[in-house]
Design goal:
The chain has about 325 residues and is an all-alpha fold. The protein is built from 15 helices and 2 strands. It has 2 domains: about 230 residues, no CATH class; about 25 residues, no CATH class. Helices cover about 70% and strands about 0% of the residues. A two-stranded antiparallel sheet has the order 1-2. α2 packs across α4, α6 runs antiparallel to α7 and α11 packs antiparallel against α13.
Length: about 325
């Protein structure tokens, strides 16, 4: 995956460079203003354009690669898995389910016209389908829309074909032709870019609000001390020294975070459609692997194949129990 990213193609630019540039723009005013407050000579930011450019490029690349390597953690936070207290996760999930119930009831209303019906279903189908449903009904499983969108399409191969996505997707990906992989990578990079930016803006909002509190009590100077003499002839970032700058930046970052997060959702829905289509159209590329393990093509063969390849277990044809593959006979029924 890293090798593909470092081919320096369009996905690299979208997933690393653009979020890195946004991160550098966010962090440089904070670094400069804190440096001025504690007396560091940050005059090179306005006196030397090459030094400023090198600092910006270095920060952009560092932040971009850091976001890329923290992808699982970022998605875990934004989906509703990581760092979420159970009470908050349950409360927001219940709130989403109440909204879903209200919209489902509205779809059954005779007063709802065709355009509104389509809009309602487009919203409802971003959530996973209920397992015990008698008709088309959805439910929220995670506290965020992003988490439910990803859950919905990641559950698709398991519920339709009994193919566990975390096991079969990497194998299916390698079986796809290069053009298909390139197209999917480009589409996913767009969604990842907006997701990374929303996470960056969320972090910057927290940092700027925290900086406003620290700045109010002059804590940076109290902790670090006046490392150098205050520089009076620096004009850059003067606005960063005005009262309330950090608080305003925190609020603006939070608003932009919400905007970027919301903008990313349609891209994740599109990703889900391609993910589902890949299993619908190309799962036959994995049938040779299934035949090698089970000797036949059956829906039940996909779980058996996974059990053998991942856990080293075989399924007894007589009692349907799983047992270690190094044993010739089933320990339970002694069937070979």
């Amino acid at each position: 995956m890293l090798r593909g990213l470092l081919s320096f193609g369009f996905p690299f630019f979208i997933k690393v460079i653009i979020p890195g540039i946004v991160g550098a723009i966010i962090i440089i005013p904070l670094i400069a203003s804190v440096g001025i407050k504690i007396g560091l000579d940050v005059g090179f930011l306005e006196r030397s354009l090459p030094k400023m450019g090198l600092l910006f490029i270095g920060l952009a690349l560092s932040i971009g690669f850091l976001l890329y390597f923290l992808e699982d953690i970022i998605y875990g936070i934004l989906e509703g898995y990581t760092l979420w207290p159970r009470w908050l996760r349950n409360r927001l999930t219940s709130r989403l389910n109440r909204r879903i119930k209200g919209k489902l009831e509205k779809t059954e209303s005779t007063a709802t016209d065709a355009i509104e019906q389509r809009s309602l279903w487009n919203w409802l189908l971003k959530f996973p389908l209920k397992k015990d449903r008698e008709k088309t009904e959805t439910e929220a499983i995670l506290p965020t829309k992003l988490g439910n969108i990803l859950w919905s399409y990641e559950d698709y191969p398991e519920s339709r074909y009994r193919m566990e996505p975390t096991f079969y997707w990497p194998r299916l990906w390698l079986a796809l032709d290069s053009e298909s992989r390139k197209e999917i990578s480009t589409i996913w990079a767009e969604a990842d870019c907006l997701t990374y930016i929303s996470f960056l803006l969320l972090c910057s909002s927290i940092l700027y609000v925290l900086a406003s509190i620290l700045d109010f009590w002059n804590i940076p100077t109290l902790i670090l001390g006046p490392i150098g003499k205050p520089v009076d002839n620096i004009t850059i970032c003067k606005i960063a020294l005005t009262p309330g700058f950090f608080l305003v930046m925190g609020v603006v970052s939070l608003i932009l975070c919400w905007f970027s997060y919301t903008l990313s959702l349609p891209f994740h829905v599109k990703n889900g459609n391609f993910f589902q289509a890949a299993f619908d159209l190309h799962r036959d590329k994995l049938e040779k692997m299934q035949l090698t393990v089970t000797g036949q093509l059956l829906d039940d063969g996909w779980p058996v194949t996974r059990a053998y390849l991942r856990h080293g277990l075989k399924k007894c044809h007589k009692c349907s129990e799983y047992f270690p593959s190094y044993k010739e006979n089933c320990p339970r029924c002694k069937n070979r």
